[in-house]
Amino acid sequence: MVVTNNVDLPEESELTVQEVNLSTAILRAGSFHLGKYCENQNNEFMLCRFEEKDPRKCINEGKAVTACTLEFFRKVKKACLAEFNQYANCIDKSSGEYSFRYCRKTQDVYDKWVFENLNLERPPFGYFCEVRVHDTKRPKPPVEDKAVYPDATPALPEDAEKKPARFGSRFYWMTE
Fold first, then answer.
1. In the chain, how long is the greatest CA-to-CA distance?
2. How far is 76 from 114, CA to CA, in rounded Å?
3. Is the pLDDT of residue 174 over 70?
4. Which of 76, 86, 63 lies closest to 14, judged by CA?
5. What separation in angstroms does the CA of 133 have from each of 22, 41, 57?
6. pLDDT by residue (tens digit) across 91-110?
7. Are 32 and 39 contacting, i.e. CB atoms less than 8 angstroms apart?
8. Which of 3, 1, 76, 11 minimizes the C-alpha distance to 38?
9. Do 96 and 47 meet the contact criterion of CB atoms below 8 Å apart?
10. Of 52, 75, 37, nearest in space to 1 by CA
11. What is the mean pLDDT of residues 147-167?
12. By C-alpha distance, which of 99, 89, 155, 115 is closest to 33?
């Protein structure tokens, strides 16, 4: 996209939202439940980005995703902070790549607390890879017409003089 005087950029007040200021270990610890909790908002945002092909038109959907994320972590903090902190600390300290495999015991405790207090079950393996249809209230954007270009330059007439190449053929192995 070329930025010219005709491009309207959003004001800073439109872009300003409260940040999700959490570490990698905490985001990874809550990622599966967060993805399930905010699935509708995430799908709406990604559909908007895909259909509109312009991030400026999807600012409100992005704000909804951020608000949902903040709401999820606030609920986790109220319901099961100790269990969540144990799980996140295990992910943080057990390996350099924040692996889940060393923390299955603390994960099980955390998953039970989330299910009991937030009624949110951990999604099964491969859940986020499954194909699902997302129903939206946003109107479908108009389909852009394909660009029509004038016909290519007309070819030489059949009876035009065709001189031999000055330096021989590119396909020398075929002419020898």
1. 87
2. 7
3. no
4. 63
5. 31, 14, 22
6. 999 989 999 999 999 999 99
7. no
8. 76
9. no
10. 52
11. 81
12. 115
* Structure tokens belonging to residue 171: 């396909």
Are 48 and 57 contacting, i.e. CB atoms less than 8 angstroms apart? yes
φ, ψ of residue 72 to 5 degrees: the values are -60, -50
Looking at residue 143, what is its pLDDT?
85
In the block, tokens 């709401």 appear at: 71
C-alpha of 81 from chain center: 28
3-state secondary structure of 118: helix
What pLDDT, on a 0 to 100 scale, did the predictor assign at position 175? 56
Which residue type, as a one-letter code, is found at position 3? V
CB 122 within 8 Å of CB 33: yes
Residue owning tokens 């991030």: 55
Read off the pTM.
Answer: 0.77
* Cβ contact 70:78 at 8 Å: no
Contact 33, 120 (CB under 8 A): yes
Q: Within 13 Å of residue 59, how many CA atoms lie on the same side as its CB?
A: 11
- The tens digit of pLDDT for each residue in 22-62 reads 999 999 999 999 999 999 999 999 999 999 888 899 999 99
CA distance readout (Å), 85 to 70, 101, 112, 121, 129: 16, 17, 14, 18, 28
Residue type present at position 4: T
